[in-house]
Amino acid sequence: MIKLKLGPRTILYPMPAVIIGAEVEGKPNFMTVAWCSIASHKPPAVAMAIKQERYTLKGIRETHCFSVNVPSSDMAKVVDFCGIYSGKDRDKSKLFTIKPGDNPQIPLIDECPVNLECTTIHTLDLKSHCLVIGEITQTHVKQDCMKGKKIDPRCVDPLIYATSSETYHRLGEVVAKAYEVGKVP
């Protein structure tokens, strides 16, 4: 197999395109983040990289809390809008039905099938970006996305971002059952 060396790149698949919500100067604001991942199981935590100049990061630093809103693939247009425009210049809260979380300072997007309420537990300056690690304090899931006691990712239909092609995608087919397929080499 021939592989090309591309140098250091921010390529890792899949990358969920999520909408981060935070209260900034007393108002809900939202931004798109594709550099977001689960960071820990105990405590349950997420990690995300946010450009230092982003307006929403100001709110996260002020309130020490935020939401991770997982949009479905049919929300691509509004997700892209939230990534293009700054809350300094546009009131993005008008795009959504906003519900308060258990923490009233955490704005949740009702249209998103999954919302995570988070409390900031650590930030790390990475020059161009700030790595924000947040403990997940509550998870909200639309009832029709549940199959018994488990979330069905096909019902969530999360939006996926591909850095190299700058395109949005959706999840594909199931290829194997985890913790089973690898039992026999």
Give an account of the 3D structure:
This protein has helices spanning 55-63, 76-84, 153-156; strands spanning 15-16, 18-24, 27-33, 36-40, 45-51, 65-70, 98-100, 107-109, 114-126, 129-141, 146-147, 150-151, 159-162, 167-170. It is mostly beta strands. The chain has one domain (15-170): Electron Transport, Fmn-binding Protein, Chain A (Pnp Oxidase, Chain A). The strands form four sheets. The chain has a seven-stranded antiparallel beta sheet with strand order 3-2-6-9-10-5-4. The chain has a three-stranded antiparallel beta sheet with strand order 1-13-14, with no helix packed on it. A hairpin with a 4-residue loop joins β13 (159-162) and β14 (167-170). The longest helix has 9 residues, at 55-63. It is globular, with a radius of gyration of 17 Å.
Domain count, please report it.
Answer: 1
Structural class of the helices, strands and pairings?
Answer: mainly beta
- The Rg value, from CA coordinates, equals 17 Å
Q: Give the averaged pLDDT, no decimals.
A: 95
Instruction: Report the CATH C-level class.
Output: Mainly Beta
Please summarize the sheet with the most strands: 7 strands, antiparallel
Number of strands: 14
Question: Given the structure, what is the number of helices?
Answer: 3
CATH topology: Pnp Oxidase, Chain A
Order of strands, main sheet, comes to 3-2-6-9-10-5-4
Helical fraction = 10-25%
- State the end-to-end CA separation: 22 Å
Relevant CATH superfamily: Electron Transport, Fmn-binding Protein, Chain A
Shape type: globular
User: SSE order, as H and E?
Assistant: EEEEEHEHEEEEEEHEE
Report low-confidence residues grouped into runs of 5 or more.
none
CATH architecture classification name: Roll
Strand content bin: 35-45%
